[in-house]
Every structure is written in C-alpha cells, then in structure tokens.
Amino acid sequence: MQLIINTYGSYLHVKQSSFEIKVESEKKRISAKKVDSILITTGSAISSDAVKLALENNIEIQFLDQFGRSMGKVWHSKLGSTTYIRRRQLELADNEEGSDLIKEIMVEKTENMIKHLYDLGIKRSQNKQDYLFEKIEEMEELKEKINKLTGPIEIMRSTLMGYEGNIARKYFKALSYLLPDRYKFKKRSFQPAEDEFNCLLNYGYGVLYGKVEKALIIAGLDPYVGILHTDGYNKKSFVYDFIESYRHHIDRIVMKLFSRKKVRKSYFDEIKGGLTLNKTGKEILITELNEYFEQSTYYKGRQIKINNIIQFDCHQLANHIIEEGD
Question: Which one is the CATH code of 80-94+191-326: 1.20.120.920, 1.10.530.10, 3.40.190.10, 3.40.720.10?
C-alpha cells in the first residue's frame, strides 16, 4: 500500500517498530511490511527514525507538489544503475535497436488506448459505439504507420512524435465524448489543468512517474538516459520514454470515477490559469489508485498484480539489454 501524508501538520514517526501517523490528537499505526511507498503532499514532519525504517524496508519516500509531480525522493543508497547497463542504454540511443524499442513502446501504448476505448464501448448506445469504432480505426491506421518506420531514432523522432500526438488527440477526443456534458474538455491541458478531467489525469500521471522511476532504478536502468526524449540537465528522459505503455491505467481509473459519478466540483480549487486538486480530491483519487493497482491480472503468461507490472517489465528490459550486449 501507499502511505499518504496529506494533512497539514501531520507527524510521521516510529512506534514499536511500526510507522505511526499523528494528526492533532489522533494516531494511526501501520506495519512497515504493509507499506510500499510513502507520499508526502503537504506541510508535514517526519522523524529520522521513520526515514531509517523506510530505508531498511526498501520503502521510498516521495515528496509531491500540488499537481502530483515528484519534487524529490528518499530511498536506499544501494539502488542505482550499473555501469554496464548505462553504457548499453547510451548505445541504444544511436542504433536501430533503440528505435525498435521505442516503436514497440508506442505500438503497445496505442493498443492499450484502443483496448480502453473498446472496453468503454461495451453497453453503450449504437451511436456512441459507432463513434468510438471510427476513432479506433483511425488510430489503427496510425499505429501501422509507426510499425513501418525504419532507421535510427534521430531520423524517426519528429515523424514518430507526430503520429503519437495525432493518436493521442483522437483518443482524448473520444474520452471527452463519453463524459457528461459539464465535464467535457477540448484538449489535453497540463500544468495547470484547464478542466476537472485533465486535473485528475495530471495528478495520476504524477504518481505514475514516481512508480516508473523507482522501477527503472531497482532494475539497474538509468532514468536520465533517454532514447525518444532527448537528454537534458536534470531531465528524466527514460522515464518519459518508458511510462507511455502504462498511462492507460490512470486513464481507466479517472474514467471510472466519472462513470460512477464520484467526481464533484468541490474536489477542485481554482488557481491562476486553471484548476488544482484539493485535499479531498487527492484522497479520492489516491484511494482509487491504490485499489486498482492492488488488483491481479493476467499479463505476459502469468498472474500478477497490476502494481508489479512495471517492475516486471523493467527487469525484462534490463536482462534483454545485457543479453544483446554479450
């Protein structure tokens, strides 16, 4: 489970070898064995003993800003990429093996989007199904164009990102079409979001970035050595590359919140240029995220928790990189 600290003035410390959260006069104790990560989203205090207990149990402590983006993490010093894997990652950026990997990620991302639209079309009216299938056909055509691209990533980059952006526009237009009228949106908006849907999506993606970065590092991969996304100072380029296959999980969670009428205008605060998710909204979304990622699914020939899929894929990629380099 994720331990969420989102109440101003909270104090996280250790009591009898367990975490204890104190909020004013209320206290709650949680075993370290039940915690995967600790998310801190507001003004709180954490004791050095709580930090040590987290490190001893390989629990990351992550600080998030108001949009759900990771501001920084505390984790065990032994985690880190191996020199050999880092060299191999650098090589991938300059040859067609790297191009093939990125194409594979983009195709999988598109297939996940299409599967999501198919699932949303079940039990919809015929008119809505027709609209969704029209968008799906258009996305399938663009996916095939991605499959046909060849050459090093430097040559493919602009064309590939153009196809990716076109697919995304069709996908999000379809999602907006299915929302209640008062929640429909014209386009993807980022920081800040211009509407409730994108506000929830952005915060969920922020949490997902943290999951992907952690999984890459545990597998020995370097989150800063990208292929499609170019390198830059303090830019986690490979996180941006690798996250694409998993965004659909957040999309599904957010769409489910709307379809089950769990979204309220009161979950959002107005800020300059858009909206931000408030404390209540974050609690609702994080609860849904935790429940969803704890579910099991059949994935690549095995039954696995959704929460473990990213780590499984990162280890597979690391092993592939090593084997191809031998």
Answer: 1.20.120.920
